[in-house]
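Exam prep: given the inputs below (a chain plus iron/sulfur cluster), describe the expected output before reading on.
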Amino acid sequence: CGVFGMYDRHLNVGNFTYWGLFALQHRGQESAGIAISDGSNIEVTKGMGLITEAIKQLPDVPGGFITSGHVRYSTTGSNNPKNIQPLVIHYQGGDMAVAHNGNLTNALDLRRELEGSGSIFQTTMDSEVIVNLIARSKAESTEERIVEAVRRIEGAFSLVISTNDKLIGVRDANGFRPLCLGKTEHGYVLSSETCALDAIKAEFVRHIDPGEMVIIDDSGVRSRLFVESEAAINKALCVFEYIYFARSDSEIDGQSVYQARLNMGRELARETKYEADLVMSIPDSGTTAALGYARESGIPFGEGLIKNRYMGRTFIKPDQAQRELAVRMKLNAVADVVKGKRIVLIDDSIVRGTTSGIIVRMLKEAGAKEIYMCVSSPAIEYPCHYGIDTSVRKELIAATHTTDQIREYIQADKLHYLSREGLCRAVSGVPEAELCFACFDGDYAVSVPEDQDEGGKY
Ligand code: 5GP
Ligand code: SF4
Ligand code: MG
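Solution:
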């Protein structure tokens, strides 16, 4: 998901939030919402689909100066209009809208506990657990209520919360998901990624730290740790943000995403040293790494696949047949470019093996001689519990197949996954110990309840 919020008494914050979310569209295409507050009244507009479809008209709040917005990414079984964020509540402490990126690992336990003491839930969103905790807190101020609530939740959460008089940002103690602070001439912005700051010409100020909460109001920005002690902070930024999820023109926690992807390609070239005629990518997600491979190896880069740019990301399709169709609608081979060639084909990841399998067959049908598939991430063997839909375990091809079996399945002539070491060198701006690699090694920084874990390694 993508989250975005603004506090500015001089700009049309609704419009700016719309464009900010538009720049975060790659983080979620399932639904979108914007809440605007004028200090005493909060209104929200939400809808399904891309932001251009979801929000035909902004909430009508003349004099509105605080916003929170959200673009939703599909995670398992959630295609329900009730689950659109931000979630707006009116409680005795005032009004509040909450936009959440991430996945809580103890949401089910908290929900049971809250239901046991009388709470009623209307959605299946983790965010509803958060607002219930906030509303039920006995603390005096909104800020303290939020602190109390976020101390109880576990897992991944980058939150943008708008209240009647404040914009609040919170990043979980592991910092799984990014969150940054920007500045406009007279106000402030919170955003999942820096590319959205650029889009609205806000100046980048800094990233929010894991375990940090920022409070923005008329007196400026205040910062505090919400965790009980610094020992609770255990940095584990999602390395997949660099591999695939974030936009290349963003910078996360001091590391440029573009540079990381270019480096991943260079590392792949060093690890494979394949002799080939052409380097190409599965666009768009593999392109920057392919460029890196080409530069490092000296093998020319070519565009052997053309993308229909009017399609969304293909990953988010309900079943295998529809996924296949979607890939074919999205990409087609250029026979002129690939005919007779030995091709290094780069993609960012293999999840189920659908995309790469279809593409390898497509390229061979177009006359490619050999396909050397290079993946700019290690093999994904474990599910993500922190907000990225790397699928349920049994669907992850690398959980049940060896690399050679996968090579055979996708019908490639060679298959190489970037090593963990190569990946770490590519993302050298963030120390290895401060990154999450759980979908590759099963080492979860925050443990998940056993009944939600889908068992150990098969
Ligand atoms: P597969 O076809 O192997 O199931 O998925 C791999 C493809 O899905 C890659 O081309 C990659 O770019 C894309 N992909 C990988 N992870 C994600 C994700 O979390 N979300 C979306 N939308 N696409 C993904
Ligand atoms: Fe990212 Fe993988 Fe960790 Fe999930 S498990 S947060 S996708 S690195
Ligand atoms: Mg892709």
